[in-house]
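assembly run, all chains below
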Amino acid sequence: MRRFALIVLPYAWLLALFLVPFIIVLKISLSDIALSIPPYTPTLDLAAGWQGVKDFFAALDFENFVFLTSDDLYWKAYLSSLRIAAISTFLTLLVGYPIAYGMANAPAHWRPTLMMLVILPFWTSFLIRVYSWMGILSTEGYLNQILGGLGLIAEPLQILNTNVAVYIGIVYTYLPFMILPIYATLERMDASLLEAAEDLGCSRIKAFWLITFPLSRSGVIAGCFLVFIPAVGEFVIPALLGGSRTLMIGKVLWEEFFNNRDWPVASAVAVILLLLLIIPIILFQRNEQKNREAEG
Amino acid sequence: MRRLTWFNTTSLTLGFAFLYLPMIILIVYSFNKSELVTVWAGFSTRWYGELLENDAFLDAAWVTLQVAVVSSTVATVLGTLAALVLVRAGRFIGRTLFSGMIYAPLVMPEVITGLSLLLLFIGIGLDRGVLTIILAHTTFSMCYVSVVVSSRLVSFDRSLEEAALDLGCSTVQAFRLVTLPIISPAVISGWLLAFTLSLDDLVIASFTAGPSATTLPIKIWSSIRLGVSPEINALSTILIGIVAVGVISASLITKSASLRQQAEERAAVKA
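ok done. output:
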């Protein structure tokens, strides 16, 4: 009985505020836009009884999804989001791996401090961290001032409001998510394996590619998913650092909802985005499951 | 074999420079006298003064704090319960769905979470305001809390709890006197995580806040959409300062607490 009470409270909360809202999104994505409050039809009329339920289902259709395929904007935005997320994930790996590697090889008494230094930015406001790059990257910003002052460039570089700024923003804000899982696998690694490899005549670089990197693979995979999945639906970074030509689906959804007030299309955009992300989310869960089993 | 080669030193130096320079620049320029944000014109605390006189920011900060305190506290209770269910309850009908609902919000794009909650609130006719933001924040942060707490529960030695039960404790007493004190560092860090997630959130709050409630991130967002502003630099500096002090002291406290607890657990097992 007590066990039942324990389960019911969090379960009911998540059902009501997580699952039910998704069913509503799904339902509205099948509705039509209307000039009313709420701005879509049909609404379920339970007072009309069974006939009302039948009318309700009869009025639902896939029109919004057909619309998404007919307008170039949407599929281009999905593709461009996937591309931007993939490029940024790769760049984050390039930046994050050496840091994780350096941390794992630092003297043991430094590691807790280094760890805290990686986590600290994660606790500070995401919005502020993205914002801090606006002053650096703008045409009259600090970076252009320095490069101009050194005489390296004649004209200020246009970085802010381009995709490059979006890559920088994603790498910067998601870096801790890449470093921590890689660091966790590298730190656990048995260092004697490397000694054995060197004794057997392996060069240090070869030993890295033959031993260290394969052993850190699960951390690399986890880190990549942790960056890639949220980056696909990112809204703040493309809105602040990207330009008018930066197409990302999170931004499209936001504008569809807040600017065009087309709730059914916004819901359809959300449903497709979720379907796109389900595959990486399942792969990520599998990888985590495998790691837990390997540890346990 | 662990050694600090020139490669490791360079990558650590460059890495941490990359992580911290943007924030250091922001802090330095928040003391800039000039209205032109990127041109240094001398030291001044002018923008801090203007910020403190700006009621809109103070009101938004107050709303944000209320939302964060309430939502993180409720989320900690619900998230701890959820962690107990995940780790302890064994098999029950719908367990897969339950763990799916715990892990999914962690990777769900915020725009989707925000949109779906908004449509729910409108569907049931709940007016948007402080309450709806609290409900939204509680929902996603309880998932983070339950992940943090369940990772501690997994490594928890259940024989301590069994000993308490053998010695005549009721299950509730055993939980309160044995389990809770041992998992408390994880519960506290879960609360802190929920608290900062709530302070930080722009996207979900934008969907679920009505015209009656503006949080600090929403306010910051509307000012920086137009470009860099010296007042926001000052505000950012204050927020970074609070977080730095909070995180450093919290990590010192939890470190000493967990050391003490490990010692107690060891002593208990030996005795």
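The radius of gyration of chain B is 23 Å.

Chain B touches chain A through 84 residues (CB under 8 Å).

not gonna interpret more than that til we talk
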